[in-house]
Amino acid sequence: MKKLLFTIIALALTGIYTVSAQGFDPPSEGKAVVYFARVTKYGKPTSFEFFHQDKYIGAFKGDQYMRYECDPGEQLFWASSENKEFVTAELEAGKTYVIVVDVIMGAWKARVGLTPLDISDTESWERVKKLVNKRPPTQTPQAKLDKMNKKLEKFIAEKLEMYETTWKNEHNYKHLSADMAIPEEEL
């Protein structure tokens, strides 16, 4: 037992053994990072699924968050529940962004809302910081992401077709602009 403990400590000190930690992690070189944070206590048992363009990127429920790293540039993020909610984004390399996941009363189950965070909204920003600094992000294992992308392939294509042909013209979806990046000194 002592030998196992010594090995784990040695690996951790050398950086080979990685543990997910809470707090804001900067993006990898040439990437941007988006935190999807659900800071409301309302609708805790309802799980929402999240997508980046045509890819399923994870799901979570309750007051949790997900860290998602991607290429900079124009992006489309969306979430699914009783409704489908979209956010367009213009991301800059090396920057960190936050999208607040809202829970909205629905007819059969909770609806999802996505609100890009502007840190001038100090109440929401403080709640996001508290959540991110309190616990590690929710992570969906790669095997599950692969399985769900295959399972939802037709669903994703249908919803993106509806977005392109109808929804983006009928709804005023929110936009996450490059200047909404969280300043490094705030992280």
Helix content: 25-40%
Q: Provide the domain count.
A: 1
Strand content: 25-35%
Structure annotation, total helices: 4
Distance between the termini: 38 Å
> Can you summarize the main beta sheet?
5 strands, mixed
- Shape, please? globular
Given helix and strand content, the structural type is alpha+beta
- Strand arrangement in the largest pleated sheet: 3-2-5-6-9
Report what the structure shows.
There is one protein chain. The chain is of the alpha+beta class and 187 residues long. It has one domain (35-182). The chain is built from four helices and nine strands; from the N terminus they run αββββββββαααβ. The strands form two sheets. Strands 3-2-5-6-9 form a five-stranded mixed β-sheet. A four-stranded mixed β-sheet has the order 4-1-7-8, with helices on one face. Strand 2 and strand 3 (55-61) form a beta hairpin. Helix 3 crosses helix 4 (153-170). The radius of gyration is 18 Å and the shape is globular. Mean pLDDT is 88; it is low at 2-20.
Summarize the structure.
With 187 residues, the chain is α+β, with helices and mostly antiparallel strands.
Task: Write the SSE topology.
Layout: H1 2-14, E1 32-37, E2 47-52, E3 55-61, E4 65-70, E5 73-80, E6 84-91, E7 96-104, E8 111-116, H2 122-134, H3 142-151, H4 153-170, E9 174-176
Parallel strand pairs: 1-7, 6-9
Antiparallel strand pairs: 1-4, 2-3, 2-5, 5-6, 7-8
